[in-house]
């Protein structure tokens, strides 16, 4: 009974990825996108199979062995890409050699806390092979610097103003409609707040940019406050009308940036002081 108790798989480990390389690359992208501080990244090598142990503040992740080396193919290419991604984020990667038994436990999600401790205290491979894995495929460490395809394509919900969170949640279904409705909703909010029947860019010109604007963007610097106020009509004129009159055909990431611009208007509006 005691033997079974102390040999239960750890409940502190989060397993990500599958035996497929792309799934493991996507998992690393999620970690890099969501974890503020990566404390340690270990490449776990067993013969020509590779997995990862990644520790962030309060979390331990295991990426299963969807990576490989020593031949040409998706496994080695994925390994090189994963290393470049981590280096792109200024994360130092060390490599350790592990047993076939440990690699099997990784892939079956059955590591013990003691197994993690063993890996964290195992002597790292020196000299390092990290760059050799990269150069074998890409001949450079710069390939991923301008490549963002492994990050999750999702809006950062924790940054979205609560008044348009519902539009953010439906964004992928119809980004054009979400953007257009966000503009319309902001118009209504500002109209009601200053009791005005103006609309479109004229409303924002009056509300934030007139001689004595009803809404003053928070700033002790008058020029900075005026410049911030001009953001409202400028963004409205730059992006709103095309969504009102046409089905805009743009990459999803471009539309996300537009939605985030509108989200910033909501935040600035909420912080604006109403002239008494």
UniProtKB/TrEMBL annotation:
Conserved hypothetical protein CHP02391 domain segment(s): 177-250
Pfam families: Hypoth_Ymh
Descriptive protein name: TIGR02391 family protein
Biological source species: Acinetobacter chinensis
